Amino acid sequence: MKLNKTLLSVATAASVLALVVPSVAEDVTIGFIGGFTGPIESLTPPIFAGAELAVKEVNEQGGILGGQLTLVSADGACDATTAAAAADKVINSDNATAIVGALCTGETIGAFNGSGLSGNVVFISPASSAPTLTTLDDNDLVYRTTPSDALQGVKMASLLLEKGIDDIAITYVNNDYGKGLADALSAAYTAGGGTVAASVAHEDGKADYRAELGNLTASQNLVILAYANSSGNTILRQAVESGNFTAYIGGDGMVGDDLLKGIDAASVEGMVATRAGAPEGTATDLYTKLATDAGNDPNSTYAPQAYDAAFLLALAIEKNGSGSRDGLSAALREVASAPGEKILPGEWSKAVELIKAGTDIDYEGAGGALDFDAAGDVDGIIVQLDVEGGKFVEKGPIN
């Protein structure tokens, strides 16, 4: 009898300990793939810094799954083949649960098809904007926090027509991004009554685009859909030197300080560009403060969208309850969409408490609401930027 009581006491104590001992902490790794070299090399570091900021906040506010969140990076060079090798490293060697990236659309597709699909890895790109990503056969694994160029093309057309520009010449980098944006712009611009006097594809990375520019002189209003660190800079510089154009327009890939290197700032004063932006509101204000306090430029191209991508992945992993890739896509859709209590940038500890309590959450990001549609796309806003005094200045949303 005494022995039985002793055994009962031991069993009871063990049960109590089982209730109070927390589950084993789990460290988690996510990856970042982007063009640290190549045609967008000046745009990539601020985008990466946006993702780093989200990871830093997660760790400073208690970590993920009781452990630490680590961000590993690899250079995709804005190239499908290079990105496939980068994805192999991050996914198969670093064992990343999910990926922020890639940035260029072809880079994202190359990375995902290389190791993402076979590895059942969720990708969230903060910058891949080409419409081709919408129709990618991805098993519901590829998302983006920036709107498609189907929207950017429409907004750019609206802006140009509103400015009284009734004819344009377009040159675009010959890839998914350039062709997708050029097609969207051309369709919307002509539907609005504008004339596309010429549209010429160009290959990236050449030293001389004078032949292409010679085929674009039917209009003095030159639209360049390319990359700041590569063909965008070269074409803009040689167009200015030619004296054949009076107005210059660029897409989001052109919005970087390096675009104007070697170009007399006065000659491109008033140049217009478009890119994804953020609506006014508490979420944007919170991100702006967080980024500024961290020493980041809150207005860097696609940095807010990278912050959102990393923060969303962390929320989805916490919701999923482990660092496993299985079930992560479904968890991502749950934390990104209504119904649920709103979670804003920086509110990691609040989100964790709600998730542990079984309460639905709905993240509203630095770049706006992130209600993914069936293809993993989001709505958004497109903003206008003008070159003033040798740098791009954001002017506000395009109606």
Automatic annotation (TrEMBL):
Residues 28-336 form the Leucine-binding protein domain. Residues 1-25 form the signal peptide. The keyword Signal applies. Keywords: Amino-acid transport, Signal, Transport. The keyword Transcription regulation does not apply. It comes from the Bacteria. Belongs to the leucine-binding protein family. This is ABC transporter substrate-binding protein. It comes from Devosia rhodophyticola.
